[in-house]
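Possible regression after last week's pipeline update?

I re-ran a chain I had predicted before the update to compare outputs. Posting the input and the new output here so someone can diff against the archived version. Not blocking, just want to make sure nothing changed silently.
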Amino acid sequence: MENAQSLPQQSELTLSIDSIKQDFIQLNARQAANEQFPLTLANDEQVRQVKVWVQDQERELGKKVRVVAGKESLPVESASLALEGAPGLVLEGEYLLFANCITTHKQAMDAYEYVVVGLCALPNYLGKSQSAVCASISNSLNDEQNLYINKRFKADKEQPQIAVMSYLAEVAALSITPTFLQRRESWQRSWVRKLYPSLAWTGTDIHYLIHRARFKG
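New output (post-update):
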């Protein structure tokens, strides 16, 4: 358990558009963040390969996924629930990965984190505090980040937390694990935030939140 000793300021993990969009593109060898994947369904061999690529994560977290040939193989009403360009979906409690959105081992690992952690574990971990946490995080983001969220996820003014949660799911896909010192600092800040809710969220704080949710959500 992280202790509450004081420690020197640690360098922050940024949550700029570069870290969410450009780094995600580079890590997954994608040409553009809004690249439209072909409608062609993956063949059986590709489906099996994606399943093999995520087996280590399944064993680590104890959460199995079902790999399908593509979103297009689902009923229209189910497929419409997936964010455009997303590599997977949680449907009636089942984790689905779309094989036709995945061509590399790294993409498969990111897709697993996006679906299992970002779309399920994180909301479960936040529970009833989700709305308040999302509002606090939104207030901590800069104008560029909020503009990206509004455009990418078509933020609803009545339910802004939906867009923020979608944003955090993409952050989860980056699979960034804070160092021990960064986790300790963010743990300290989380306790201070209970007394001072207006305390801004740093990039490290958000990665720590996702890290906690990964194992407890």
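Follow-up from reviewer: compared with the archived run. The chain has a mean pLDDT of 84. Marking as no regression found.
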